Amino acid sequence: MSFSATLKYDKDGLIPTVVQDAASGTVLMVAYMNAISVDQTLATGKVTFWSRSRQKFWIKGESSGHFLFLKQFLFDCDSDCLLVKVEAAGPSCHEGYRSCFFRESDADGNVTVIAERELTPDQIYGTSK
Description:
By secondary structure, the chain is mainly beta. The protein has a domain at 3-92: Ubiquitin-like (UB roll) (Roll). It has helices at residues 35-44, 121-125; strands at 15-21, 27-33, 48-51, 56-59, 68-75, 82-88, 103-105, 111-113. A four-stranded mixed β-sheet has the order 2-1-6-5, with helices on one face. A two-stranded antiparallel sheet has the order 3-4. The longest helix is centred in the N-terminal third of the chain and has 10 residues, at 35-44. The radius of gyration is 15 Å and the shape is globular.
């Protein structure tokens, strides 16, 4: 039995995955994995997810070159959530920010961008997104 079989997935066979920079501790993104993407990530060292919107596997960085290289694979006490610590080869956000968490809101609902964009989507993908 593979390690992935010991995890608890939701009704769609997915498990939420928090991605954190191994060096700085910054949360870069949240995505979903299934048993196959867990096994692929552990086998290859390149973080692989299941895209709910596209209904297919995706290796983070396969189109941008900004791969996430696995440094540590952790799971919570209930085995129903993952934390993967990575070395990121570029911005993790498809909008060109290091982290997908680049905005904050105050109590009044005012939103502020709190990070610098590293690249535009056109620079990353060659097309506007």
